[in-house]
Amino acid sequence: MARLRKIDAFSVVNGCIMALLVAVFILPFWIILTTSLSENLQVQSNGISLWFQGFTFAGYIFLFGMSDIFIRSLGISLLTSFTAAALSVIVCTAAAYALSKKYLVGRKFFNVFLMITMFFSGGTIPTYLIIRGVGIYDTIWALILPGVASTYSILLLRNYFYGIPEALEEAAYLDGANDLQLLVKIFIPLSMPMMFTIGIMTFVGKWNEWLPSLLYLGATNKSLWTAQYVLRQMLQDMQTLYGSSSTGSITNAPLITAKNAGIVIIVLPLVVLSPVLHKYFASGLIAGSVKG
Amino acid sequence: METEKTDRLVKSVRRGPFRTGVHAFLTGKTWQGIVRHKMLYLLLLPAIVLICIFCYAPMFGVIIAFQDYRLLEGVFGSEFIGFKMFYKILFDPESASYLEFRNTIYISLIRICTNFPIILIFTLLLREIHNRRARGFVQAVAYVPYFISWISIGGMSYNLFAVDGGILNQVLAAFGKEPITWYSEEKYWWAILTISSLWKGMGWSTLIYMSSLGSIDEELYDACVIDGGGRFRQMVTVTLPGIMNVIMLQIILDVGGIMSDNYDQILAMVNGSQSLNNVTRVVGTLEYEAIIGGSQYSKATAYSLLRGLIGMVLVLMANRVAKNSDNEGIL
Asked: Would the CB atoms of A151 and B290 count as touching at under 8 Å?
């Protein structure tokens, strides 16, 4: 039923509110972009502005040229996020496949075993002590491994597997396929969208994490710092960018624009990809809200 | 002699409990099922091992809240002190950190009590935009902050709050007001933390409401219009009841979050400012300081455990209330 809607006062006010909100959501991103491309001296004297003050890449050049700390941290972030995402998809898919089988002996026990972790957690300090205890403290594995086996992801995948027709499995089973072949030949090809969702969620989660760098790495181990953590250190003290060997002067450095350049580099991929991220995150959220 | 003895032994074993116990088990369906599908257990193994290490081991690690834990002596060497630490952190003003505990609760309470209704209103207003493209655009823009880290938001907000040159102080100056040193004024920070939470989570939180709004029968609205119901009546009598289940779910989850302190956010937003300690130190700060400083592990863990227990009790209570009012709970 098509209804003609008249434009009344409410629609106008509502439209204005929405326009204002859109501005509030977009402006902070716009401001880091304009500031990062401005002349540092002008920003220093005139303050942050909504428009470019001059146009220069000096901030970016300083950020990447001063030392290899930032670019290296980007590499570490990519490496840890990607490894964690890949491991998470593999580990969770395997576990979810096993749990989706009604004939798995002890299935109830394993389900409860997983569910408990959604309601209880040991907290920061015991986790830290365990990470020291298993010997991955101050290694890249301390950044990767925690969170790889996520109950939430396993349950999402398990529910997805439930939706795959049993007839397919029986046919393959009669052809002599074993459990592993069933998984590789039938279940994985049919579950790519959900596996991709898990991978993307893990990747973005790891990319945005920074407390592990602070807690699980030794204070001086700069070589493993992730991009988020380097950005955090930079925001507080630009001296971070200078290696321990060189103690250069930062009086003439484009500090403000370089800081904003750092934020832009770290945020930009996520902003550009946000429609894609939205699609996958939403499918995860909606699948999760269906009771399994 | 020897063979006779073994024969007798074998016979007695066959007659004895072995036959009905282990032997029956080994030839029974259960064990055969396990053997036939041993591959499945192999597939399950990595996840189980990782969960044991990173979820269960820390759960047992909370035992250090009942110890006078020292890093060098470890969990097994440290002295067991029972509930002494809990007594100390609750009733002994000397060693308790009431400030951190208070801030944890206040910040979350303010956040939940303001964000929840605002997000709901935002969803309802969003639904009133009938141009699909415009609505899609607003939603797409509002989602973006959900995907970025608190560190970047901390950096972005510095452009806003910087003492000289910050956007806010420029606006104040335009109105002829004195600039405010945002990073040392305690009174603004609960509001700043609340608003930044809202900015980050608002768009995403509408998603779950939106998906259940779609399932409301359009005919209900038509019926309401025929009965003379205006926009507001439609909202109250059709929309709200239609998404009540999701609202209750959100409330339960929010209530459970009262004791979580968003330490990630706070540390990123305050940008290293020490003069905000009175309002921004939370239980997470204690845990962090214990790890960095290498002491007070037991005290921080005791607080963390207490926090977790209170959070769980709150969730169970909210769940009970939701179920008693004819809504679905989560458990």
From this structure: no
Co-location of B19 and B118 in the same domain: no
Indicate if B54 and B102 belong to the same structural domain.
no
The CATH number of the domain where B239 resides is what? 1.10.3720.10
Note whether B268 and B150 are within 8 A (CB): yes
Q: What is the pLDDT of residue A291?
A: 44
Q: Mark which residues 185-204 of B lie under 8 Å from A by CB.
A: 199, 203-204
What is the average pLDDT score of chain B?
86
* B27 and B150 assigned to the same domain: no
Residue B96 lies in a domain: yes
**Interface probe with A: pick from B138, B151, B252, B303, most Cβ of A within 10 Å:** B151
* Same domain as B104, residue B239: yes
Nearest CA-CA partner of B154 in A192, A54, A260 = A260
Residues of A in contact with B44 (CB under 8 A): 94-95, 98-99, 110
Q: Which of residues 133-152 of A touch B (CB under 8 A)?
A: 133-134, 145-149, 151
Distance from CA of A215 to the nearest CA of B (A): 7
CA geometry: angle at A119 spanning A116 and A124, to 5°?
105
Number of domains in chain B: 2
Q: How many CB pairs under 8 A join A and B?
A: 257
- In a 3-state reduction of DSSP, which class is residue A233? helix
Provide, for chain B, the percentages of residues in helix, strand and coil under a 3-state DSSP scheme, each rounded to the nearest 5. Answer: 80, 0, 20
How do residues B257-297 score in pLDDT, each as one tens digit? 788 878 899 999 987 788 888 899 998 888 888 888 888 88
Angle CA B306–B310–B315, to nearest 5? 150
Q: How far apart are CA B108 and CA B197, in angstroms?
A: 10
Q: Does the structure show a pLDDT above 70 at B6?
A: no
- Please tell me which of A200-209, B205-214, B228-237, B246-255 the model is most confident about, judged by mean pLDDT: A200-209
- Answer with the one of B88, B121, B137 that is the final residue of a domain: B88
Question: Which residues in chain A have their CB less than 8 angstroms from residue B78's CB?
Answer: none
Judged by CB atoms closer than 8 Å, whether chains meet at B155 and A263 is answered as yes
A241-270 average pLDDT score: 79
Condensed to tens digits (0 to 9), the pLDDT of residues A60-117 reads 999 998 888 899 999 999 999 999 999 999 999 999 999 998 888 889 999 999 988 8
CA atoms within 13 A on the CB side of B6: 2
User: Hey, are the CB atoms on A11 and B128 less than 8 Å from each other?
Assistant: yes
| Among the partner residues B30, B54, B125, nearest to A105 by beta-carbon distance | B30
The two tokens of residue A25 are 């959501």
Q: How confident is the model at residue A177 (pLDDT cuts 50, 70, 90)?
A: confident
For residue A25, the chain B residue with the least C-alpha distance is B142
DSSP designation for A120: -
In the prediction, which pLDDT does A243 show?
Answer: 58
Instruction: Quote the CA–CA distance of B227 and B135 in Å, as a whole number.
Output: 28
Which CATH number is associated with domain A27-289? 1.10.3720.10
pLDDT for the residue numbered A20 = 95
| B97-143 pLDDT per residue, tens | 889 889 999 999 999 999 999 999 999 999 888 888 999 999 999 99
User: How long, in residues, is chain B?
Assistant: 331
What 3-state class would DSSP assign to B39? helix
Q: Summarize pLDDT for B222-240 with one digit per residue, the tens.
A: 888 888 878 888 888 888 8
B160 domain-assigned: yes
